[in-house]
């Protein structure tokens, strides 16, 4: 514990080797906030135009409150913003086509309901990709009615899927603890590209790292 304190203290001490008082940091924070508030180019509001899209209730069969789960991933159709798919850690994939007024579950017949990432094909909004655990990606070509296994790296959570909007054949996904993969053109195989990143791949690979 002392060495951890010493490490922090060495970074925060002044030119005389002394630590600044809490009042100093409070004053500096107030000065910074005043500067932000007075600078028109950096002014911001705490108000935002957000609304809940649900679901807000569930069918309870006992006194136990299960909650409505938590969202782990979301994908929005770039052509129709009312078309949204969302996923839960153990809740499967859900779909709305009316901006969240009504939701339909797409995966109740699947052996796994674990969802960590989602993507909608930018050129065909009926094609979905779902990243699960065990390095597995599922694919649907009919809006989520039928799913097939599209990739299997053997381990890890698929925590991000990216599709190049300029060439949808170029697909990438990242696996927690497993690396970054790229889809090979003309086949159903995926290639690990951590150590073989071409210049054309670097923009999307950077996004994978930033959003992991």
Explain the overall architecture.
The structure is a single chain. This protein has 212 residues and is α+β, with helices and mostly antiparallel strands. Helix content is 17%, strand content 26%. The protein has helices at 2-12, 22-38, 202-210; strands spanning 71-76, 84-88, 92-96, 104-105, 117-120, 128-131, 136-140, 148-152, 158-163, 171-175, 179-183, 190-192. The strands form 3 sheets. A 4-stranded antiparallel sheet has the order 1-2-3-4, with no helix packed on it. The chain has a 4-stranded antiparallel sheet with strand order 5-6-7-8, with no helix packed on it. Strands 9-10-11-12 form a 4-stranded antiparallel sheet, covered by helices on one side. A hairpin with a 4-residue loop joins strand 6 and strand 7. The longest helix is centred in the first third of the chain and has 17 residues, at 22-38. Mean pLDDT is 82; it is low at 196-200.
Mean pLDDT across every amino acid position: 82
**Overall 3D form:** extended
Strand order of the largest sheet: 1-2-3-4
| Distance N to C terminus | 31 Å
The overall strand count is: 12
Give the ordered list of helices and strands. Answer: HHEEEEEEEEEEEEH
Our estimate of the beta-strand percent is 25-35%
Number of helical segments with 4 or more residues? 3
The poorly predicted ranges are 196-200
The biggest sheet, with number of strands, parallel, antiparallel or mixed sense and barrel status, is: 4 strands, antiparallel
Helix share of residues? 10-25%
Instruction: Please compute the radius of gyration using only Cα atoms.
Output: 23 Å
Q: Which structural class fits the helix and strand makeup?
A: alpha+beta
């Amino acid at each position: 514990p002392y060495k951890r304190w010493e490490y922090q203290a060495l970074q925060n001490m002044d030119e005389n080797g002394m630590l600044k008082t809490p009042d100093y940091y409070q004053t500096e924070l107030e000065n910074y906030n005043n500067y932000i508030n007075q600078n028109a180019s950096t002014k911001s509001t705490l108000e935002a135009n957000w609304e809940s899209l649900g679901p807000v209730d569930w069918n309870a069969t006992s006194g136990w409150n299960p909650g409505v789960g938590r969202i782990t991933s979301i994908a929005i159709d770039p052509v129709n913003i009312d078309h949204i798919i969302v996923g839960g850690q153990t809740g499967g994939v859900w779909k709305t086509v009316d901006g969240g007024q009504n939701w339909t579950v797409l995966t109740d017949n699947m052996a796994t309901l674990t969802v960590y990432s989602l993507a909608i094909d930018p050129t065909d909004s009926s094609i979905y990709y779902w990243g699960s655990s065990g390095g597995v990606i599922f694919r649907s070509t009919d809006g989520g009615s039928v799913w097939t296994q599209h990739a299997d790296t053997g381990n890890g959570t698929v925590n991000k899927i990216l599709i190049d909007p300029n060439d949808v054949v170029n697909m990438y996904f990242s696996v927690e603890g497993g690396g970054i993969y790229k889809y090979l053109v003309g086949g159903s195989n995926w290639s690990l590209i951590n150590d073989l990143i071409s210049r054309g791949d670097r923009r999307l690979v950077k996004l994978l790292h930033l959003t992991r």
